[in-house]
Design a protein that fits this description.
Strand order of the largest sheet of chain A: 2-3-4-10-5-8
Order of helices and strands of chain A: EEEEEEEEEE
Number of helices of chain A: 0
CATH architecture of one domain in chain A: Sandwich
Largest sheet of chain A: 6 strands, antiparallel
Helix content of chain A: under 10%
Oligomer: homodimer
Strand content of chain A: over 45%
CATH topology of one domain in chain A: Jelly Rolls
CATH superfamily of one domain in chain A: Jelly Rolls
């Protein structure tokens, strides 16, 4: 059976923000576009990190494509730190260690997209 | 030979904005993350449309994942119009007709991600 998908149109705030556990601090995730919408190749998620919060320091066998929507912070990758701000873009290859920290006073918001991999 | 890719970190404004032709009006595209960076599954592009400009009304056999960064406008899809604003999210399935128009006075900016498909 072929399922026909239609255009989905929401605001990101319509999606429930879920708490990110395991190694994160004050971080939530919204799954904005997923395979349930018919998106079979990649998923769009929105993260929010409170001041002084962070995502886990980890690595995994899929890549990230990131766009910073609001706020500022640092990425820690392979022992080095890089500052980032609104409008910055990251490609983080598969198996590269990474962590996002909010070093500002306001909420840090970014998109982080991941593949649905078959390889 | 296996090419090792490293984290890429830029600001979207670092990328040259190229004019979109064929059916578009006052629209530019920036290719922010592509297969040249090691992104083999999907590409991140940023579009800017001036007031009263638009993307082509078209359809194609790949999907779009869209996030509205700034501005407002309408999407035309299958003869219907939907208004959108900053923070809105679209999933446009493969083969669904679509067009983005800037109906505001300010620049419309959005991300539009597409798959590198093998199917």
């Amino acid at each position: 059976m072929v399922t026909m998908y239609k255009m989905k149109h929401i605001n990101y705030k319509d999606v429930k923000a879920e708490r990110v556990e395991e190694g994160a601090k004050d971080t939530t995730i919204r799954w904005l576009i997923t395979s349930k919408d018919g998106a079979n190749h990649f998923a769009m998620r929105e993260f929010e990190i409170k001041s002084k919060g962070y995502t886990p320091l980890h690595k995994h066998d899929w890549e990230h494509e990131v766009f910073i929507l609001e706020g500022k912070g640092i990425v820690i990758s392979n022992g080095k730190e890089e500052r980032f701000k609104k409008g910055d873009v990251f490609f983080i290859p598969s198996m590269e260690e990474h962590q996002f920290k909010n070093t500002g006073k306001k909420m840090l918001k970014f998109l982080c997209l991941i593949p649905y991999k078959e390889d």
